[in-house]
Each structure stands twice: as structure tokens, then as C-alpha cells.
Design brief:
Strand order of the largest sheet: 5-4-1-12-13-14
Order of helices and strands: HHEEEHEHEHHEEHEHEEEEEE
Helix content: 25-40%
Bound molecules: fe (ii) ion
Number of strands: 14
Length: 302
């Protein structure tokens, strides 16, 4: 199984921190060595839109600031999460190598705290430049050589991270037949645990914002395979939780970066896997937002 951006050693982290000043911002995390890991706890992030320039503002917010605030909160959890996902749009706009270098730098405190990071790609990413900048991702063994897809097996669920980047800066996404075929086979080979599918693009049927072009083909794979309990996505920069007629949960993860509609909340979701479902807690960057702390309990379909 591929492990992307695995934890890094303390020694290497300190050397890099001294160069980048990150130790100051993440001082408390350095004390977290004795913390226990909760295998059912996951940090779900989406649409971080990090630019090489840490001072860059978009729609009135500083993306680096938002991201650092979120990772600091993740690191401050009483128990260490088992992993951190970012469901695409890792880069600000067009997926530049320097954007990914900044992503890697800002992720170092998380990895130093022994939290593995799993990255998916969105329409503002560029796959080749992503792999060029993140050599560990390039070297990771992937089930599909030319896509950033992965299975992460955990005690209570298997996470399937898919790659819906069709063309950088083109809004809609596409999984493609090869990836769908692989997904179908991988699901058939892993029936015993709930499966959770993570994709950058929203189902095309939910909102007309250039979603997943092959939504129906994806549904044809995941709806009849009852071990698939949720399809989780970003892209729309909106937080919402829905369920289709087959009982499949549709979870739209909020953006860490900017929102498109004034008043919408940005933030991240703390997911806790349970025996027959999953608890989602929305952590807003604006703690005074009415959605902050909202808890949604998902129950798995039979
Ligand atoms: Fe985005």
C-alpha cells in the first residue's frame, strides 16, 4: 500500500525548521512526542490553494495563514490523528513547482509529528509538477502509474483516494475508464470493510460548477458495491452533507482557503470512524461562525 509523505525524523525536521523558521510557529508540536495515535481519527482538508508567495492574498484571505492555523489545530488534538488528507487544489492556481515546495514546507510539522499525509489532485494542480516538486510522491508505489490514486487501509475502513485532475485550469474533472476499472477491481478485492471514496470533484449532479464529468460511471461502480459508504469531495468550496437514494453519503468538504460566497465558512473536518458510521465535526477558521463545531453523525448503509 502506498504511504504518501510519510512521517519524517525529528533530526531532519529540526534542520529544516532552522532554515525556514517553522519551529517558532509550531513550537508546541515539538513537545507532542509522547502523544498517542487514534487509528480512527482523521483530518480532512480540501482546497488549500497554497501559493509560493506566503504573503499572497486571494478573496481577502491569506492561504498560508489559513493552512497554518488548521495544521496547528490538528497538531493540538489530544490524540494524534492517524492521517491527514487533502482532497485537491493543493496549489494556488496553476500548480507551479514552487507552490508545491511551499506545500511541502508547511506540511513538515505535521509529518514531524508522525502524521502521514495523503494528497489528491484538483483542477488547480499540475500532476507532473506536483511529482517533480514532491519526489517522495513520485517515488511512491501507485496502483495506477500515471494517476495520484491510492488505497489507505485502516482498522475500520479503507480510504480510496482518486485522481480527478483532467487538465490544469480546466474546471471539470474526469476519473477515466482505466481508473474506474481499477477502482471496481480494488473494491471487489476489499469487501470486508467500509470503503470511503475521496475525490476532488463534486458529483456533476449536485451543482453546476464543473463537477465530475464521469459521475454516472463512478456511481455505477460505487452504488451497487454496498461496502462503499461515502463519496467525499471538495472543489465547490462549500460545506454540506447529503445522502442519495442508495444510502451513499455525499460529503462536500469545506475549503481551508477562501470561500466563493460571502458568509460561507472555511475550515476543516475532523472525522472519527466508528463501528457503523463516522462522526464529522466541522472546525471553522472563524470560531464565531454558526457552523463551527457542527457535528454530523453518518450511519453506514447496509
Ligand atoms: Fe478549489
Amino acid at each position: 500500500m502506498p504511504i504518501h509523505l510519510p512521517p519524517i525524523s525529528r533530526r531532519r525536521f529540526i534542520a529544516r525548521s532552522l532554515a525556514g523558521g517553522a519551529a517558532l510557529a509550531f513550537g508546541p508540536a515539538l513537545m507532542a512526542a509522547g502523544k498517542r495515535t487514534d487509528p480512527d481519527s482523521w483530518a480532512l482538508l480540501s482546497d488549500i490553494h497554497l501559493a509560493a508567495d506566503p504573503a499572497l492574498l486571494a478573496r481577502g484571505i491569506n492561504m498560508t495563514d489559513h493552512f497554518n492555523r488548521v495544521t496547528r489545530e490538528v497538531l493540538a488534538l489530544p490524540k494524534r490523528p492517524a492521517g491527514l488528507f487533502i482532497t485537491g487544489d493543493c496549489a494556488y492556481n496553476s500548480g507551479q513547482v514552487a507552490d508545491y515546495a511551499h506545500v511541502a514546507n508547511l506540511l513538515e510539522p505535521v509529518r514531524k509529528d508522525q502524521v502521514p499525509v495523503h494528497l489528491a489532485l484538483g483542477n488547480h494542480d499540475n500532476r507532473e509538477r506536483f511529482w517533480e516538486a514532491l519526489q517522495q510522491e513520485k517515488a511512491a508505489k501507485r496502483p495506477l502509474a500515471d494517476r495520484q490514486a491510492a488505497i489507505i487501509s485502516t482498522p475500520r475502513a479503507n480510504w480510496f483516494v482518486l485522481d480527478s485532475l483532467e487538465k490544469t485550469l480546466s474546471t471539470p474533472g474526469l476519473l477515466g475508464q482505466e481508473q474506474l476499472d481499477w477502482l471496481a477491481g480494488a473494491l471487489d478485492a476489499n469487501r470486508s470493510k467500509p470503503a470511503l471514496v475521496l475525490v476532488h470533484h463534486n458529483p456533476g449532479t449536485i451543482a453546476n460548477v464543473g463537477g465530475l464529468k464521469d459521475t454516472e460511471a463512478l456511481y455505477a461502480v460505487i452504488r451497487p458495491r454496498k461496502q462503499v459508504k461515502a463519496y467525499m469531495f471538495g472543489h465547490t468550496h462549500v460545506w454540506s452533507v447529503d445522502q442519495d437514494s442508495s444510502g451513499l453519503h455525499l460529503v462536500n468538504l469545506p475549503p481551508v482557503a477562501y470561500v466563493f460566497r460571502e458568509g460561507d465558512p472555511a475550515g476543516w473536518v475532523h472525522a472519527t470512524l466508528e463501528r457503523k458510521g463516522m462522526r464529522l465535526e466541522f472546525r471553522c477558521l472563524d470560531a464565531s461562525h454558526k457552523a463551527h463545531g457542527q457535528v454530523v453523525n453518518l450511519r453506514w448503509r447496509a
